[in-house]
Amino acid sequence: MSRKPVPNETPLEYILDFCAEFSRRMILCGANIERIQMAVTRICHAYGLQDVSISMLSTFVTLSARDTAGGYAQRQCAVGPAGIHLQQLKQLNDLSYRVVTKKPFPKRLRTLLDEASEVKRDYAGWQVLLARLAAMTCLCIIFGGGLRELAAVLPVTALLHFLTLLASHSGMDRIIANALIMFVAASAALLFVLTGLSSRGPSILITVSMVVIPGIPLVNAVRNLLCGNEMNGILQIAKITIETVALAAGIYLSLLLFGRSGNMSEAVVETLDSPLLLILLSFVASFCFGAVFRIPLRDLLWAGLGGLLTRVALILLSSVLDNRIFYMTLAALVASLYAETLATVRRDPSTYFLYPAIIPLVPGNLFYYTIVGLYRHDAAMVASNAWDCLMALLGLSIGFAVSSTIANYVRRLRHRLLVKHSKPSEPVPEEEMV
């Protein structure tokens, strides 16, 4: 829980209270640590604070600073399990710019933070579910599914959606929850095959796998690792690895119990081979995942465009390059440059545009084939697909890391120049705050 301000606090304490709670809320809705640190640094400098010290992990925040009179204060707070709420992330990011520019009276900061955290036109639960179902429909078609596979994917997606919400609200450990949820979802998908309601189990399971692979956390972990937050990056990578193993264990156990079916004899599926249809479906999938990530309706077109550009890059690059890590790195670089460019022009977080754009790059099929290889005790199949999956994820991470590292150092240079040539000013009185 975050610390609540108490009466008779000094301006320094109000500012640090605000910065600690601002950081916590930004992490909870999916922000990158590097961006939060820069925002907090700008805010502290705007109020003339000195000796500012910031230490952040994805689970903990510690801040300390001195005011011009020599007073010292420190704040720290724990951070719970993070999610993705990009509209709230954007509003909090906008607030940081307003605070730096207007410098409201410190006592008003917490009220402004609460107001910025309110999402007045958020999607209803049923709208998020419909968006998820539409996105999964596109992915199922991409991975060779037909009407019978869609008839299985849609209820399994709904089941996965509600199980995830239940696990989140119950406070269940993420590793245990991943294994249980994936076991139930994969078992439900295989039961559709065993009962003859669907004919291509691999298409169903690959589609379901696309939802749970932690591609976005991996991107953030690598960015932290290469942008000066090494400890946080290392801890995140370790956490992602354990959670991914839990997901794989859930699917593997389901295959052991329900996978002995003639329909599962063909592990590899034929993906869609029409470039135009692939591009269209990628646009729709990223558009819909934008809604799942709570991007406002007016910006969903940008989310879909990011998926479209990434798919185009992937198609073109894979046709001329044989090495998976090369074309995945370059395709990820295209997606990241798109997000960073829009973020710079619009002064929004890059994650606001990046998360939907990476959907075409998530290697759900390779993840599934690796697990099937384990189930079949086929060492060659495990080695081949595990290596390809690793190369895909590595290329994905390198592409984003290169772009975000360049953008990070550009932002840091701009920040230093702004700090060097600007002077802190007095806070705006409360009665004059707009």
Task: Describe the protein's architecture and organization.
A three-stranded antiparallel beta sheet has the order 1-2-3, with helices on one face. The relative contact order is 0.11. Residues 427-434 have low confidence and may be disordered. The protein has helices spanning 11-28, 33-46, 86-102, 109-117, 125-142, 147-170, 174-194, 201-212, 215-226, 230-258, 275-292, 300-320, 324-346, 351-357, 364-376, 379-421, and strands at residues 50-56, 60-66, 72-78. It starts with 10 loop residues before the first helix and ends in a 13-residue tail after the last helix. It is elongated. The chain has 16 helices and three strands. Helices cover 69% and strands 5% of the residues. The protein folds into two domains: 11-121, no CATH class; 125-412, no CATH class. It is mostly helical and 434 residues long. Helix 1 packs parallel to helix 4 (109-117).
